[in-house]
Design goal:
- The chain is mostly beta strands.
- It has 2 domains: 102 residues, E3 ubiquitin-protein ligase SopA (Pectate Lyase C-like, 3 Solenoid); 86 residues, E3 ubiquitin-protein ligase SopA (Pectate Lyase C-like).
- It is built from 2 helices and 11 strands.
- The strands form 3 sheets. Strands 2-4-6-9-11 form a 5-stranded parallel sheet, with no helix packed on it. The chain has a 4-stranded parallel sheet with strand order 1-3-5-7, with no helix packed on it.
- The chain is elongated, with a radius of gyration of 18 Å.
- InterPro entries: 5peptide_repeat (IPR001646), Pentapeptide-BTB/POZ_domain (IPR051082).
- This is Pentapeptide repeat family protein.
Length: 195
């Protein structure tokens, strides 16, 4: 059963367990979802503006084309989740854990993601413009097509990450940890002829 356009604004739904539930176009603005656990749930085009997710756990759930505006994501755990096409605006990402998640086409522009572990994730065509990724762990992350203009990457670890030539030109990689393959690709993207 799918819940469509339901109004959950300011609802207190903390510490609940949701399994295989579907939501389309639902409004969760300012809802209390602290400690919520979801498994196999789908959320399509839902609004999570100012929602408090602190301490929540999500497994094999999909949050597609959803809006997270000034949402509290501190201490959340996301495992095998899809965030495809979702938008994050001025969210709190302290102590967030993503494991085997697909964040393709997400917008994380201008968010503070310093020291966040984003290793091994799919961030294909993600908007990371002006995001603060200082000290972030991006090892093995797929950043193909990601927009990195103005992103702060000082101290970030990009070893084993996949970045296309456009991303290597846009990004300021000063102080970034890279492997030999990325260093060669970076040099080639900047017009060096390598022999």
């Amino acid at each position: 059963m799918t819940e469509t356009a339901e109004d959950y604004r300011e609802a207190v739904l903390s510490q609940q367990w949701w399994e295989k539930r579907s939501f389309v176009g639902c409004d969760f603005t300012e809802a209390d979802l602290r400690g919520l656990r979801t498994q196999g749930c789908t959320f399509d085009q839902c609004d999570f503006t100012k929602v408090d997710f602190e301490g929540s756990r999500h497994e094999a759930s999909a949050f597609r084309s959803c809006t997270f505006d000034r949402s509290v994501l501190a201490g959340t755990r996301w495992s095998s989740c899809s965030m495809l096409g979702s938008s994050f605006v001025d969210c709190r990402f302290q102590k967030v854990a993503f494991t085997e998640c697909d964040l393709s086409l997400v917008s994380l522009s201008r968010n503070r993601l310093s020291k966040v572990d984003l290793s091994g994730l799919r961030l294909r065509e993600a908007n990371l413009t002006e995001a603060d990724l200082t000290g972030a762990d991006l090892r093995g992350t797929d950043l193909t097509g990601a927009r990195l203009a103005g992103a702060k990457l000082d101290g970030a670890d990009l070893r084993g990450a996949r970045i296309d030539a456009n991303g290597l030109v846009q990004a300021n990689l000063s102080g970034v940890h890279v492997d030999t393959e990325t260093a060669i690709a970076y040099a080639a993207a900047h017009g060096l002829v390598i022999h």
